[in-house]
Design brief:
- With 272 residues, this protein is α/β, with parallel strands linked by helices.
- Among the domains are: 116 residues, Resolvase, N-terminal catalytic domain (Rossmann fold, 3-Layer(aba) Sandwich), CATH 3.40.50; 66 residues, no CATH class.
- It is built from 9 helices and 7 strands, in the order βααβαβαββαββαααα.
- The strands form 2 sheets. A 5-stranded mixed sheet has the order 2-1-3-4-5, sandwiched between helices. Strands 6-7 form a two-stranded antiparallel sheet.
- Strand 3, helix 4 and strand 4 form a beta-alpha-beta unit.
- Helix 4 runs antiparallel to helix 5.
- The longest helix is centred in the middle third of the chain and has 34 residues.
- It starts with a strand and ends with a helix.
Length: 272
Amino acid sequence: MQDTVCYARVSTLEQAQHGVSIDAQVERLTSYCAAMGLNIVTVIREEGVSAGKALASRPGGMRMLNLLKDGRASHVVAMKLDRLFRSTEDALKQTTAWDTKGVTLHLCDMGGTNIDTQSAMGKIMLTLLAAFAEFERTLIAERTSAALSHKKRNRQLYNHLPFGFQREGKQLVPHEGEQKVLKHIFQCRKDGLSLYDIACRLNDLGVPSKKGGKWHAATIAHIVNNDLYRDPADNLIPWTPPKKSVEPAEAKFMGQLVGVVKELGDDKGSVS
């Protein structure tokens, strides 16, 4: 059976910044199916959907999974790996499940060529491509985090205006009144008050939040956990950075690569 689901996706950011067209994707997918003799059951278009969402949590993704589950299609055709999956683990878990059910994944735009998971080489290439895709996403996240930390350290404007500061150009400068409230918040934490108790105390005192509303435990948590306030001059509580067990992108990628190379070696040995 050659019944096929074509899947095309673009995020809102891609549409806005790069003018990525979902119609161009669909045209490539349908041309590929015609060349490969695949019968298209349906074309699923996901517009304005981020790659960060799991396939099953996307409306079109869930529809595709149901078609495959019901046996109404046995092939999935997409442009690239990142159109479908959000991580290496996500990609390999789903494609392994599809493989056991006889579902073949086809990727049409892989550096000028295409791959499918019907062959051993296609499966190995899929593993490598998934690792590279996640490596790139993790590097971007690390750079974004580093840029945000740099802005905070240098008191530069980032995201929304934080409590305790006001804006002068692109710089954050202390807001005298709100700085006094910050001192009170951190002193309360030092005295052992809970986040909820601090919020209630500020509300009872009639102190407005940054937007002029009520204080909540989550608002206090955001302040006491924000490294913008780690400066000793602003923070009455000695701060110890939390221990992070997150693997650097490079180390994680190399671990995945070693696994793929080992798998290649095992496959080579089994051929003979």
